[in-house]
Amino acid sequence: MPLFTDGCYQCAPAEALIAKVLAGRCTMHYTRVAVGNGSIPEGSTPATMTEPAGYVMNAKLSGATNPVDGECQVTAQITSDDVTADFSATGVLLYAEDPDLGEVPYTYLVLEAAPEPIKSKTSTVGKIAIFELVAAVGAVDNVTADIDLETLVTAEKVAEMIAAHNADEEAHPDIRQIAQDALDQVEALTHTISTIPTQNGSLTYTGSPQSPSWNGYDPTTLTLGGTTEATDAGTYTATFTPKDDYQWADGTKEAKSVQWSIGRANIASVPTQTGSLTYNGSAQSPTWSGYDASKMTLGGTTSGTNAGSYAATFTPKANYQWTDGTTAAKESPWTIGRATVSTLPSQSGSLTYTGSAQSPTWANYDTTKLTIGGATSGTNAGTYTATFTPTSNYQWDGGGVGPQSVNWSIGKAAGSLTLNRSSLTLNNATRTGTITVTRPGNGAVTASSNNNSIATVSVSGTTITVTAVAYGSATITVNVAEGTNHTAPSSKTCSVTVNLFNATLNSNTWAAIKAASDAGDAANVWSVGDTKSIRLNGTVGNFSFSNQSIDAFIVGFNHNSSKEGGQRTHFAIGKISGKMVALCDNQYNNEQTSSGYFNMNTSRTNSGGWNSSNMRRNILGNTGTPSSPPANTLLAALPSDLRSVMKSVTKYTDNTGNSSNTAGAVTATTDYLWLFAEFEVFGARYYANQYEQNSQAQYAYFSAGNSRIAYKHSSTGTAVWWWLRSANYNNNNNFCNVNTDGNYNNNNASWSAGVLAGFCDMRGQME
After folding, report:
1. Going by C-beta distance under 8 Å and a sequence separation of 6 or more, which residues neighbour residue 642?
2. Are 133 and 72 in contact (CB under 8 A)?
3. Is 17 strand, coil or helix?
4. Predicted pLDDT of residue 182
5. Interval 322-350 mean pLDDT
6. Handedness of CA 637, 640, 644, 645 (dihedral sign)
7. How are beta strands 143-145 and 28-36 bridged, if at all?
């Protein structure tokens, strides 16, 4: 509990209030001082008191000094006029205003060791008691207090108390009695006039002539002369001359001069303003209650324009005085009230972020009436607070003159979003790619993939990194959040193609395999001989396949691309358990002259060569397309996902037959499924047209030395001979074939044999 000076103690709430003032939450304002005549209860301290012990009355606040070295001095006083009964002050408590708690105790002055006696208004001796309290305020710049204006005229009140005492008829009774006794003795004397007459009582100006009455005047002994009547207030001289047989006590008989007076009439009170004035921009003068121009002269400030306090003066004229006996001018305050501002300004229109500082326009804002402060301009979008304070001649509708807060705002500009690309392709060599986002402001960039199993995303600032996961397509959606100064724009997308392929061919879809071929990556990922499982379902000719599992295997990449078409991966059908197999019907190795069997033609002829053969048209299905395959063909029996990626190949073959061995007999066909030519398998010509090889190339699978022996698809322990598409150059009946031992041979076209078909998975749309 801090002790400051001469018994002043800091109360408990003071420290918290000082902290609030230093934080700018309020000002230091003292409200009142209370006085008590008791003792602090046992167990209590000055810091814990909420009112003085034995509370009697409130003193009047008369002053508060600005802080010096963290302390200020607060002055309070009590005059006897305010006291109904004598008491001794033992404690004085200063209060202050807390913004959260209201009025709180602040400083306690302990006077128990030397109580201050306080006299009542009925005492013959009046008294003014002044209390000085020291209050700790820390680093507070200034303090305010509710000062009682009556304390500012304490000296005048004291003079009034003294004058009233002296005018009291009952004051000094002993003196008055002595005077009366002496008069009686004088009057008892004869012939000698021992007392010069004096004015009896007093006269007060009435506006009419008056004469005094006299003490000691006996017209039988004295003659009255001089000035014996007057109207105006002032001092006059009468004369008294002893008549015959009478003389003054000094033995003389000459006239003696005696002054008498007419006192000034009292003016009951200083005139006061009647009614009220409100600022209107023009000069105004008040009207006065109690003003009589015949009795007093009006001076000082008698008119004004601006709102505020003024002081007129009233001076008694020659025949008048104030009730306190003075004749000096007295001030009378008068005021012009502030005009009212009824409507608080508000933002007019709207502002949108531009990157530059902006200020709002205001509705109902008049610079002659209000001063603007606070945040009057801003750059960033958001809400700002301006303040409006009435100028000196104005006030708010409720009478306040403090600043009023008004919010205004700058709206966010429309956001935008631009991507540096709308599509992105990733592959085995380039597994990541970036998307750069351009947007105004600072809105956070986010991105998401619609298929995280294909591609994932991560975001760093305005850079989006896309990482390939597996083959397929994904859409990356980019969003920009609302920023400080911009709204959130519409999202943008980037399509991502992922050509990321599994090194195990069979683990890839046909679509992925096609994509690898399209991208020219197939040879970088897989090898000749790699297999991909398929299932055959359906009737081919007269033979039915039911969920037949068989492997397609790679026989070459971009095989003979200058003639047959580039960006193609060539496959053969097929393998089972690692063995090359040929598809065989139930009449394998038998001659069949009716349709529906795996023969080159239904008769012993190679006329028309490969182009016109039963095998090409009716068994493999090259009269149709993968999307519309002919019924009962191998093309129709292939799985749909495979057919969806197949593309035709241009094959050059002897399409004449009939023992043709000319260059002109070799022409092109467009095939989706085909049989291999003699040169494509053996890399040499034996029975084929010698000119075929000029437009053909041996497949990498066979040039690598892989076995040419094929086994029956339904019995993989049985080797079978299988058809080649090359017609025999020196007879009209036979097509080339591969024997069961893997060597070259030829046979009649009408015989049913094994079918080892080729196809391509490659770039482009399905035809």
Report:
1. 510, 534, 552, 759, 761
2. no
3. helix
4. 41
5. 96
6. negative
7. parallel
Distance CA 598, CA 710 (A): 15
The residue whose two tokens read 């820390």 is 138
Predicted TM-score of the model (pTM): 0.51
DSSP bridge pairs for 547: none
Answer whether 43's CB lies under 8 Å from 15's CB.
no
Contact 712, 736 (CB under 8 A): no
DSSP states of 100-167 = TTEEEEEEEEE-TTS-EEE--TTSSS--EEEEEEEEE-TT---EEE---GGGGGHHHHHHHHHHHHHT
Average pLDDT over residues 15-40: 91
* Predicted confidence (pLDDT) per residue in 200-247, tens digit: 999 999 999 999 999 999 999 999 999 999 999 999 999 999 999 999
- What sign has the CA pseudo-torsion 701, 706, 709, 710? negative
Q: In the predicted model, is pLDDT for residue 702 greater than 80?
A: yes
Q: How many contiguous H segments (helices) and E segments (strands) does the chain have?
A: 11, 53
CB 82 within 8 A of CB 93: no
| Tens of pLDDT, residues 429-447 | 899 999 999 999 999 999 9
Identify any residues that bridge with 669 across adjacent strands, giving them in sequence order. 651
What is the C-alpha R_g of the chain?
A: 64
Smallest Cα–Cα separation from 609: which of 721, 688, 694?
688
- Taking a C-beta distance cutoff of 8 angstroms, is the pair 126, 86 a contact? no
CA–CA distance, 61 with 68 (Å, rounded to integer): 20
Matching residue, tokens 């395999």: 513
Output the CA angle 596-598-600, nearest 5 degrees. 100
